[in-house]
Amino acid sequence: MSPYQIVCVIAIYLVVINLVAFLAFAWDKHCAQNGMWRVRESTLLLLSLVGGTVGSMTGQSVLRHKTFKQPFGSYLYLIAFFQLASLLALCIPQVRQVVFL
Considering the entire predicted model, what is its pTM? Predict the structure, then answer.
């Protein structure tokens, strides 16, 4: 697989997982408003952890859902922090060399 194809696959994955995360927040809000079974918080956090952080945070902000829920909000921001720190670390050539041996 060429580097271009790898980037395309990763980009498609990120678009899909963020859309799924956003829709999960929307569905959970719908369920909360209508007294239906809710999406587990662990599921929402897992979607964020596997790459859906942007979708999760967008869903939280745009839908105004789980904005004051603790410790959920702290966990979501902690996941975002570690993902951002990891991406920034990969910008350092020595880190990339160790990670991609």
Answer: 0.89
